[in-house]
Structure formats: structure tokens, C-alpha cells
Amino acid sequence: MKKYTRDVIETHSHYQLPYFLFKAPFTDLSNDARVLYAILYESMKYNELQSYIDDEGFVYCSLDRKDMELKLGLSPRTMVRVLDVLENKGLLKQERQGGGYFNRVYLRHPFDMP
Q1: So what's the pLDDT on residue 113?
Q2: Cα–Cα distance between 107 and 19 in angstroms, integer?
Q3: Does residue 30 contact residue 85 with C-beta atoms inside 8 Å?
Q4: Are residues 62 and 105 in contact, defined by beta-carbon separation less than 8 angstroms?
Q5: Would 13 be classed as within a structural domain?
């Protein structure tokens, strides 16, 4: 392992965890749920550049559940639970596409933003 240098820090990609995920009413979220939200948020930012925008102008990402399971080291059953928790908290909405396509995932936030 090496120590960080300025050049590495400036070019190093990372996931950002939003502060609101650590405040009420989200204090009971598992760290798996928080990290999944952060990964999906990064994916959504990238997808905006790739024109993953629906007819109403909302940005979504396509969820490859198996890929997320591998990234987080979760079993399929645990991944379903984490997604359910995020959906029940209102932080995520999934829309099935059918036809072998990945679900559309819309992330949601708890505050009004322009």
C-alpha cells in the first residue's frame, strides 16, 4: 500500500455518501443500503451523460442486480432486502421493463431542489 499524493487524490474516483442518509428518518439504514444508494447515484450521474432520461425528463439508471451483488459482496436475497428498504424509505423507485431489459431505477431525495 502507498500513501496518497496530491495527483492521486485529484484523479482518484470515489463514491460520495450524502449526509442526509445519516440523519432522521434514515438513521436506521444499513451501511449496505447507504453504499448502494451512493453507487446508484454515481451511475445516475453517468447515465445523464448517456441520455438515460425518460419522457418526463427524469434521469434513471438501469440496475444489473447481479453486478450490484458482486460490487457489494451481497447474496441475491440480501440485495433484494436492501432494495426493498430503500424503496420503503422512499429513496428509490424501480420500474420493470420486461423483455429481458434491466429495471429502470429512479433515485429519490428527501428535499426540494431546483
Answers
A1: 47
A2: 15
A3: yes
A4: yes
A5: no
Q: Which residues of the chain have pLDDT under 50?
A: 113-114
Residue 54 is assigned to a structural domain of this protein? yes
Task: Name the grid cell of 46.
Answer: 453517468
* Total count of domains within the chain: 1
- pLDDT, one tens digit per residue, over 74-104 is 999 999 999 999 999 999 999 988 887 888 8
Contact partners, residue 29, CB within 8 Å, separation at least 6: 21, 85, 86, 89
Residue ranges with strand state E in 44-102: 61-63, 92-95
pTM reported for the whole predicted model: 0.83
Q: Indicate whether 9 belongs to any domain.
A: no
Residue range(s) defining the domain that contains residue 80:
29-107
Q: What angle do CA 15, 17, 21 make, to 5 degrees?
A: 155
CA distance 113 to 22: 19
